[in-house]
Design brief:
118 residues, mainly alpha, Arc Repressor Mutant, subunit A
Length: 118
């Protein structure tokens, strides 16, 4: 792995570990020691998508995990997953998963059944 590939991987790992924070392409490109244009090109080659779409997908997956595994309020899930507000989380959930965060949590728990059942 070249130095730039290693830095790029470190930047992606850092973003994944801090989904609740704001991330700009310019700041990430600087951390990867790349130009904005080179970073976006490298990003698309590595992931097959744009940074914006990748980040949204990561945040949605993180929100799904939080809804499945915690009793945190929708407001808290929205903050921790990087959506900022419950309204933003609900809008993205509905647009991409065709359901609301509350309905997703309820459906997941119904499918899971009581703990200890086979």
């Amino acid at each position: 792995m070249s130095g730039s590939e290693g830095r790029f991987a470190e930047v992606l790992a850092g973003v994944t570990a801090s989904l609740g924070q704001a991330h700009s392409i310019d700041a990430l490109a600087e951390r990867a020691a790349m130009s904005r244009r080179n970073f976006t090109r490298h990003f698309r080659q590595a992931t097959g998508t744009s940074f914006k779409q990748w980040l949204l997908n990561q945040r949605l997956a993180h929100a799904q995990g939080l809804l499945e595994k915690s009793a945190a309020s929708i407001d808290v899930v929205a903050q921790e997953a990087g959506f900022g507000t419950a309204l933003s989380l609900r809008q993205h959930f509905r647009a991409h998963l065709q359901t609301s965060p509350s309905a997703y949590r309820k459906l997941f728990r119904q499918q899971l059944g009581p703990v200890g059942e086979s």
